[in-house]
């Protein structure tokens, strides 16, 4: 969605440049300057959209990393529980046997 808006703003900026050229040829300096000011505003909006896209991309990377971390911790927790259960079932009879002897 942001890319579509960015493309639209680029087209508008290019249109303002074309208008400014036409006004310059017609010796209408004031109108040409106004067109260039609007072009500058469009370019600022394009830059803002680019910054928004970078922020969104950064957030996606952070969320993916958090998800991977969560999955890793869950896997480690499951593995630790399994090891604990195996350890408990393996060593409990041996310790009991040693105390009886």
UniProtKB/TrEMBL annotation:
One of its GO terms (biological process) is vesicle budding from membrane. GO terms for cellular component: cytoplasmic side of plasma membrane; ESCRT III complex; multivesicular body. It is found in: Endosome. Coiled coil: none annotated. Keywords: Endosome. Belongs to the SNF7 family. PANTHER family: CHARGED MULTIVESICULAR BODY PROTEIN, GH13992P. This is Charged multivesicular body protein 4b. It comes from Arundo donax. The lineage of its organism: Eukaryota, Viridiplantae, Streptophyta, Embryophyta, Tracheophyta.
């Amino acid at each position: 969605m942001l890319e579509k808006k960015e493309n639209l703003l680029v087209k508008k900026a290019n249109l303002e440049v074309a208008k400014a050229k036409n006004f310059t040829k017609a010796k209408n300096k004031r109108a040409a300057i106004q067109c260039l000011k609007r072009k500058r505003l469009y370019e600022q909006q394009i830059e803002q959209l680019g910054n928004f896209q970078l922020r969104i991309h950064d957030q996606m990377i952070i969320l993916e990393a958090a998800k991977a971390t969560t999955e890793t911790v869950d896997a480690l927790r499951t593995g630790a529980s399994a090891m604990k259960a195996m350890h408990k079932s393996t060593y409990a009879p041996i310790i009991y046997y040693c105390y009886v002897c």
